[in-house]
Specification:
By secondary structure, the chain is an alpha/beta fold. It contains two helices and eight strands, in the order E-H-E-E-E-E-H-E-E-E. The protein has a four-stranded mixed beta sheet, covered by helices on one side.
Length: about 140
């Protein structure tokens, strides 16, 4: 009946965020902009996963995010992070650092549900977990 479709992040600069996620292997598959140039949307795809980026631009640049309707606010409880699985975490971090997407390489942590992981931030401070297998089988409650 239900199937996962996408995760949406509100971002400050669509081009900067789009380039960041392209550096993580996503491909741009859709772009839209409203006639008033107040909202831009970009869909990026990685495998079957779709990441939707929203970029709100008020008519009056002095407006703040709080001036938008509640559904548009990026400053509320919600997404903590999302994760991308990599085959070699050290190689992935070196590639991201070499491409200028990471100023410094973060320290890798041994995980409980995966072999190793690290958290990085996108240009707007959204958390992205990079994790390396093997992944553990998560036990379901009985």
């Amino acid at each position: 009946m239900f199937s996962f479709h996408h995760v949406t992040l509100s971002v400050r600069d669509l081009s900067v965020s789009e380039d960041f996620y392209k550096g993580l292997g996503f491909e741009s598959v859709y772009r839209w902009q409203d006639e008033a140039d107040q909202l831009q949307i970009c869909h990026l795809q990685l495998g079957l996963a779709v990441l939707e980026l929203y970029c709100f631009r008020p008519e009056n640049e002095s407006e703040t995010i709080s001036d938008f309707p509640p559904w548009a606010s990026g400053f509320r409880l919600g997404l903590r992070h999302f994760a991308l699985q990599v085959s070699d975490l050290d190689e992935a971090l070196s590639a991201l650092h070499g491409a200028g997407l990471l100023a410094e390489k973060p320290s890798v942590v041994c995980g409980q549900s995966c072999a190793r992981y690290v958290f990085i931030m996108d240009p707007d401070g959204n958390g992205v977990e990079l994790l390396e297998g093997p992944l553990v089988n998560i036990q379901r409650p009985e």
